[in-house]
Specification:
Layout lengths: L2 H14 L6 H40 L19 H8 L2 H26 L13 E3 L5 E3 H5 L10 H12 L17
Antiparallel strand pairs: 1-2
Length: about 180
């Protein structure tokens, strides 16, 4: 045991050890030490969890994470040249991944819009369900902005029922609200 460790132990023991007349002070010191230890442990756990949560959240929000990352050899900032971009754009696998990510993200966004409108599928959104903002506090229904008729673009009633039946069989994504009472049936 080094001399420094011996001094540290002696100092800790001196202030934590109980004497008959100073027993209450030792009690306070022990509980203060426990409180500080728990506080530091909680802070470490929360920062670790939030750091991992932040990375996951950003990855899901961006949603277009590529399967390849091109970086400089030295780990520094890479200079983008037109030749490098042209070479990457001409690789068929890179194009396929970009298109697949775009389609997957577009589908997810359209499904979220359908959920917000209270319908089972984006094809069931009518022009009255979407409003275009024309100021800070006012909006106009889509059919009023572009002159659409309210039923334009909607599937036939039989097709609507089939879409609703097919979408009802879909595995629940969780945390989505049930369709509203004003949803198109």
């Amino acid at each position: 045991m080094s001399e420094q460790a011996a001094v540290e132990r002696w100092l800790a023991w001196r202030y934590l050890a109980t004497r008959q007349r100073e027993g209450f002070v030792s009690f306070i010191a022990i509980f203060s030490l426990i409180g500080i230890a728990l506080g530091v442990a909680t802070l470490i756990v929360v920062l670790s969890v939030m750091g991992g949560f932040r990375a996951t959240l950003i990855g899901r929000l961006i949603g277009m994470n590529g399967h390849i990352v091109v970086a400089a050899k030295d780990g520094g900032m890479m200079q983008t040249s037109p030749e490098l971009l042209a070479a990457l754009r001409n690789v068929p696998e890179v194009k396929a991944v970009r298109v697949a990510n775009y389609i997957r993200t577009l589908r997810r966004d359209l499904m979220k819009v359908a959920e917000a409108c209270g319908v089972e599928h984006p094809g069931l959104i009518d022009t009255g369900s979407v409003e275009v903002l024309d100021g800070r506090t006012s909006s106009t229904p889509l059919h009023g902005v572009y002159g659409y008729q309210p039923q334009w673009g909607l599937p036939s009633p039989a097709d609507r029922e089939e879409i609703i039946r097919l979408m009802a069989q879909r595995i629940s994504q969780g945390a989505s609200a049930p369709p509203s009472s004003s949803a198109v049936n």
